Amino acid sequence: MGYVAIKGGGQAIQGAEEVLEALRTAEGEHGTPLTMQAIENQLRLLTSRIVSEGGLYHPQLAALAIKQSQGDTLEAAFALRAYRSTKPRLLETSAQDTGSMRLIRRISSAFKDIPGGQMLGPTYDYALRLMRLDLANESAETFRAVAREFLAETPEPNLPDTFPKVVEALRAEGLLPPVENHTETPFDITREPLIFPVPRSAALATMARAETGSILALAYSNMRGYGDVHPTVAELRVGYLPVMLPHPITGEPVEVGEVLMTECEVVAMYEDDDSKGAPTFTLGYGACFGHNEVKAIAMAILDRALQKGMRDGPSNPSEDPEFVLLHIDGVDSMGFASHYKMPHYVTFQSDMDRLRTTQKKHESVKQQDVNEGVQ
Amino acid sequence: MSAGYNFGFLDEHAKKEVRRAILKAISIPGYQVPYSSREMPMGRGFGTGGLQLTLSLIGANDTLKVIDQGSDDSVNAVNLRQFIEMTCPGIDTTTHLSEATLIQSRHRIPETPLKPEQVLVLQVPYPDPLVVVEPSEDKRKIMHGEADYARLLVKLYEDIVKFDEITISHRYPTRINDHYVIDPSPIPRWDVPKLDNSPALVLFGAGREKKIYAVPPHTKGEPLAFEDVPFRVESFNDAQGKRRACARCGATDSFLDEFMNEDGSKRYQCSDSDYCDETLQASKMTEAATYA
Amino acid sequence: MRKILEVSNLSKIYGKGCPRCIESTGPEADTNMCPHCGSVVAIHDVSFDLHEGEILGLMGESGSGKSTVVKNLYFDQTPTSGEARFFEEDTTHEMFNLNAAQQRRLRNQRFGMVYQNPHLGLNFGISSGGNIAERLLMNDVSHYGEIRERAKELLSRTEVLLSRMDESPAAFSGGMQQRVQIAKALATNPPLLYLDEVTTGLDLSVQARILDLILEIQQERNTAMIVVTHDLGVIRLLTGRALVMKYGRVIESGLTDQILEDPQHAYTQRLVASAL
């Protein structure tokens, strides 16, 4: 290490770090540190957000990120993203078929019943949002008993490994267009900058790691009336997708692990067809790592809105690829909002110079008016 | 869970891509070259664009100077410098401009003219000067391509109509090599003339907006203005029209920071801390020589 | 008189088009929408010449394609086929073969456009003077005082109160907005001006004054103009020659007096009769 130039500013940064750590451990002598396991499992929806916004499926590291950022989702996703950007890329999977997901939940709002059946699974949708005061002082014993009893009472389910996809049934009926065979490589947002116009794959990739609140807000604008997607959820599924990679010797795809993910397909009304054949419904697609239904739905609606905007030109913000894709990234937006906290006294000096000069001119014009009035 | 990082934090592939973008930026002075800006472990807006340039350019033999608001000691400068020291073992850092081979800066260009062998990296929050008149990047690209800056000039016109002054204080739009107009980053107008015909390469990095651009050595850099309403730098004259001096070193030719004293009076001091030190040093030596 | 514009076989189809579009549309078919593919044949096979200082009228009801002609010639749209030549003293421009920058130069320097909707022609976010300044700045005038003088000159010529030149056109009446648009269009003293329904929607007395202004300008500057209107009164007052359009086709053309006195096509006859 060569000569190092550091003076006072460094001490302030050091001090800030120390006081952050002190607050994290402020429970003092009676405190118990959060375990990675507790975060990953008991705060599983938070972990889900971080793996998807961080763009890296690593629930353990996500849990660590949550712990070190003291629960700030933007900071945690950021730490995970920054970690990922230093890692080399070793292999790429081919396109994975979400029909092969091992599901914990799937619903369709388009049909009363669907092939394979509706499966409500773990959801807060119909829970009463009442404060559960019994959880406030939950003992380790009651905590452990819950899972034990659930497993004892639940019969071995007679479930198939996979479920057919609802959109396939719609395709078979000709209500949705057949899947086009795309041969081009999907746009890689981690390796290429977005230069507009961008292909749909770039939009999907950008939305898949979008900040949940931001993407929801933009999709909500479309739902409320700044847009006209009027979606129906053909299928929303949550489960584990097997990740297949080519075997290093045989080249055959082999399962190397699985990722928890949420997928949503919305069907929207048909449109004027200016190219070919009979009209069909249109499809919006959303998918993200982890269990995050609101994000998958928001993404599906925006995908549909953006497809329209890319084709006909945007008629509202949610159809404008630039507007949507450049404003939903949490790392970008939180960084920029934070940077205003940095010193800006040079530019402010410059601002004051302009204002004072303008004020002086204003003052002299006013003086002149007064003088003329006197005469 | 170990964190073994490459020299310069970025992987070699990422560095090569940044270097290619730099070469393109130098070849087309003032053109904003898109690149796939990587996430850095500090906030977007905290100099991640400049940092990626620095990390892609720096080698073990380089001597680095990092400044923010003209000061080597500002928290952000310290933070960036520590990070670079940590991820680039073997490099030297300095606060002396004359010793530096690579200078990363936010909001200032050093007062002392740069030398041909130095490279200045500026951190950029908003790379596109046209964004104030055209929100769509797609349309802005066409406007840049055709050097269509009339709408930007209209803004200057409107300013003069309304305020009898061009009110742009910093980030002053500057035309490079008679074509592309750049946002020279939030440097004060005081620093803009230093871009014109600079002996050193000046690079601009916008991490969040994913753009790199350059003013190559000895390239024309001309702030937008009217023939009869010329561009003007900040004035540091007092009410009597006398140039204020730095309260610390006495310099009357530097950009001054304004400080509020407890009693409500004001104090002025060089923004460029290295320049202030040098001037102070020189005046002491002159003093010593006089008394000797 | 020197020819300045020559338009041949200009066509514009919205939609993908099919081999039967042309035969299935036009005045005989009584539609401009192709029943086979749904495409709209906005204009087809429009040809004409224009000379220095001449005012040519394009008349027809809405949907006849008259505005589309002008939009293509001002590069607001790209034609499906056809050619247009713009003649300057020493050069001839094949208008639709030019690159974007060359087209922009013609648009900014050599042509002027006045739209029916002032929002299309003016930027309401800046002052009226600023609107004129923009056009001068596009043409590399870089002296503030000179821009200011030219803007004053143009606005006083088009009878806009100079005391209001630093206000946004948003605050102006419809007639005033058109005067600002005309001043802006004239800023570079272009040899060719396009006027698209410029008096439509204005009070009659305001209309008359704007039409007078247009005639005066044509006489002072010898500006050639293409006037798009559905108003026979405007055609009669301003133009020397006219084309009558219906469903994208030119059905009659000639001297304006002749067309109005002795219309040949049944549609023109009805049009003229209804106006009397």
Describe this structure in words.
The complex is a heterotrimer of chains A (375), B (292) and C (276). Chain A is of the alpha+beta class and 375 residues long. In chain A, strand 2 and strand 3 form a beta hairpin. The model of chain A is unreliable at 1-6 (pLDDT under 50). The longest helix of chain A is centred in the C-terminal third of the chain and has 30 residues, at 345-374. Chain A starts with 7 loop residues before the first helix and ends with a helix. Chain A is globular and about 95 Å long. In chain A, 44% of the residues lie in helices and 12% in strands. With 292 residues, chain B is an alpha/beta fold. Chain B folds into 2 domains: 12-127 and 173-221, Bacterial phosphonate metabolism protein PhnH (Rossmann fold, 3-Layer(aba) Sandwich), CATH 3.40.50; 236-292, no CATH class. In chain B, strand 6 (174-176) and strand 7 form a beta hairpin. In chain B, the strands form 3 sheets. Chain B has a 7-stranded mixed sheet. Chain B is built from 6 helices and 12 strands. Chain C is an alpha/beta fold and 276 residues long. Chain C has one domain (3-275): Rossmann fold. In chain C, the strands form 2 sheets. In chain C, strands 6-7-8-3-9-10 form a 6-stranded mixed sheet, with helices on both faces. A 4-stranded antiparallel sheet of chain C has the order 2-1-4-5, with helices on one face. In chain C, a hairpin with a 2-residue loop joins strand 9 (241-246) and strand 10. In chain C, helix 4 packs parallel to helix 6 (174-186) and helix 5 packs across helix 6 (174-186). The radius of gyration of chain C is 19 Å and the shape is globular. Chains in contact: A-B, B-C. At the A-B interface, helix 1, helix 4, helix 5, helix 12 and helix 13 of A face helix 1, strand 2, helix 3, strand 3 and strand 11 of B.
Indicate the overall shape of chain B: globular
Biggest sheet overview of chain B: 7 strands, mixed
CATH fold call of the largest domain in chain B = Rossmann fold
H/E series of chain B: HEHEHEEEHHEEEEEEEH
Low-confidence stretches of chain A: 1-6
Structural class of chain B: alpha/beta
In whole angstroms, the N-to-C terminal distance of chain A is 76 Å
Q: Largest sheet of chain A at a glance?
A: 4 strands, antiparallel
- Please write the string of helix (H) and strand (E) elements of chain A: HHHHHEHHHHEEEHHHH
Number of helices of chain A: 13
